[in-house]
Amino acid sequence: MELRVSAKKQLGKFHFSADFEIKGRKIGIFGPSGSGKSTLVSFIAGFRSPDNGSISLDGETLFDSSIGINIAPEHRRIGMVFQRSQLFPHLSVKNNLLYGYKRCHAIYRKIKPDEVIDVMQIGHLLKRGVSNLSGGEKQRVAIGRAILSNPRLLLMDEPLSAIDESLKLQIISYLKNTCDVFDIPYLFISHTLLEMRIMADQILSIAGGYVKGMVTAEELARGEMRNSGGYTNLLNFTGPHRVSDVYEYRWGNQDIFVANNGGPPATLFELPARNVILFKRHPGMVSTRNFLKGVVTGIFDMGTTVGVELQLGSKKLVAEVTKKAASQMDIKIGLEIFAAVKALAFKPLFRSREP
């Protein structure tokens, strides 16, 4: 996906200005409430027009004020998932799902209803009216409806903001899995750092009506966490199996042990960098279940502490230590070092089996 936007708009006292080009498939748009994220999305979708400028997607001009082009939203082949589900109340779940599919030209119908229903796990909901759905179920149906319109680009405008906190991680796992399975490029809009890190590879940062620039998810995380008091690793593990009171996973070429907290095994975990303990040499027998050897590849300032980036085989891990500890240990790039992590330190996010 290649998107080019050069647009300006005056909305009362609020001025929006953007001039950028992005290429990729998993793009985030990040910024505080009122920064202009939804304004930008409305321009791309065609719901609102800039005062002047141009917008093109994959070489096709969608809007150009200088030559009078402004393609209608229904002809842009852009899917939309809103903050609220926006389902049609007079239609069943099945007919809501098929709404966009039936209006999609046959040559673009590459994604079939049964495939989406299976991935979203909503087959048992098809005969229901939308008034009989929970908030999480409604949003899953809304995602399915957008996917079945077979879009060339999917816009997701804060799709989790109206969902209960307890359901957000379930819904985002469906979102990510569905877009991965059907290989749909997307713009994911949020003001929540965790959502950005899960969904986006590259991120447009917006503040005060201006696009500040493009950063990676890791760069955004380090910048935001520097101001919020600590870095948190986001780790994907595979191949869990039960070993006594823990689950054993694979992480690159490493074995990782995670405490069994009574639920099913997870696939995505948070690990606070402060819970990674560093040693310059192997201390011998310790109670910590995870003891990993790596190399220091980066050091970055975290305000009152220091972030230490470690290369552990094919994977990276960040530890956070005091500046005094970093100085006393003479931590520098290229240093071989050991990292210890308790099995209890990992917080599960995505479960292998949805409840």
Characteristics:
Rossmann fold, alpha+beta, 22 strands, OB fold (Dihydrolipoamide Acetyltransferase, E2P), globular, 6-stranded mixed beta sheet, 23% helix, 355 residues
Quick recap of the structure?
The chain is of the alpha+beta class. The protein has helices spanning 37-45, 93-102, 113-120, 135-148, 165-182, 193-199, 217-226, 323-328, and strands at 2-11, 14-23, 26-30, 52-57, 60-64, 69-70, 78-81, 153-157, 186-190, 202-207, 210-216, 232-236, 238-243, 246-251, 254-259, 266-272, 277-279, 290-301, 305-312, 315-322, 336-341, 347-351.
Mean pLDDT: 90
At CATH level 3, the topology of the largest domain is Rossmann fold
Please state the structural category: alpha+beta
Q: Uncertain runs with pLDDT below 50, 5 residues or more?
A: none
Number of domains: 2
Q: Identify the strand order in the major beta sheet.
A: 7-8-9-3-10-11
Mind describing the biggest β-sheet? Answer: 6 strands, mixed
Radius of gyration: 23 Å
Kindly provide the name of the CATH class of the largest domain.
Answer: Alpha Beta
Write the element-wise H/E pattern from the N-terminal end onward.
Answer: EEEHEEEEHHHEHEHEEHEEEEEEEEEHEE
- End-to-end distance: 34 Å
General shape:
globular
Report the helical percentage: 10-25%
